[in-house]
């Protein structure tokens, strides 16, 4: 699974402003945190995590290296995209390649910024995009169902196993429900994932509000939050105007003072990055030593050898054990040696499931 989020939305909702602010924030940290623009529309952004800096400080490491997410700025969608309107085909092709969707919705009025639908209604806009994505998924499955049925009739075991999942998903889409609402048994999940449907991806709704609404939101963002909660998706407030102002400030002190004057404790970008990380169902573990303290990303539920393999494939191949300290114990006992002396370091084997915040040292032999 790629650790990336595609930023989508109708034209003029603040989608590109959000992406530019994300990449500007990352570029400003380039002296400490690696940043690269992989393509003109892909940015790699550090995930804010206070735990890493605490570990770095306690250990006294020479470097502090955060984990990262990729954000992909996907071409704006318009009504009819599923039929190729606007940049429809390009849009749909790019969005299929991401692991999660960040859907930017305009939640403010402005006479100087036109809206493609002429009026501002974030719920309608969300439904427009969702409908286009469902239509694209529906067309994809309808092309595949007949050949699959023929293979199943001829006795193909894989086709027989896939057919019930595809039929249930088609039924949901025809009823106007996204693919992520389809319930699957654990043994059916590999089949469901193989369908590679856009509306199976988790969604984070980002409400782009005016400056006055950045702290508490407004009536439009409240409606989006209710919609997100009802559908089991995420929702974050952000003001693109504020994020642009923050990006222009030179020092952290200036940024903190400006945010405080608006009743904010952190940027909306930090919330978006963390929410995107959570949306992908990821956890962070850490390694630390004199040279560097570093955060690593793995899917939730990863066994220790798979986590070791993120650092180097040899670590997974020759995995022996993982010396593991919980973050709270690492801090409470002032580092690795203190935790060891207190009996809080554990030796974990191949079956151990990595927990968020674990500090790990892998022993291996190749």
3D structure, described in words:
With 366 residues, this protein is an alpha/beta fold. Helix content is 43%, strand content 19%. The chain contains 14 helices and 13 strands. Helix 1 runs parallel beside helix 8.
Strand content: 15-25%
Average pLDDT taken over every residue = 87
Secondary-structure-derived class = alpha/beta
Major β-sheet annotation: 7 strands, mixed
- What ranges have pLDDT less than 50 throughout 5 or more consecutive residues? 26-40
By DSSP, the count of extended strands is 13
Helix content: 40-55%
**Radius of gyration over all CA atoms, rounded:** 23 Å
**Rough shape?**
flat
Write the layout of secondary structure elements.
Blueprint: E1 4-8, H1 15-28, E2 37-39, E3 42-46, H2 50-59, E4 63-65, E5 68-73, H3 88-96, E6 100-106, H4 122-153, H5 157-174, H6 189-194, E7 203-208, H7 219-231, E8 234-238, H8 240-248, H9 252-261, H10 268-279, E9 282-288, E10 292-299, H11 304-311, H12 313-317, E11 319-325, H13 327-332, H14 336-341, E12 346-348, E13 359-364
Parallel strand pairs: 1-5, 1-6, 4-10, 6-7, 7-8
Antiparallel strand pairs: 2-3, 3-5, 9-10, 11-12, 11-13
Name the features:
366 residues; alpha/beta; seven-stranded mixed β-sheet; three-stranded mixed β-sheet; 14 helices; flat
Would you kindly provide a brief summary of this structure?
With 366 residues, this protein is an alpha/beta fold. It contains 14 helices and 13 strands. Strands 2-3-5-1-6-7-8 form a seven-stranded mixed β-sheet, with helices on both faces. Strands 4-10-9 form a three-stranded mixed β-sheet, with helices on both faces. A three-stranded antiparallel β-sheet has the order 12-11-13.
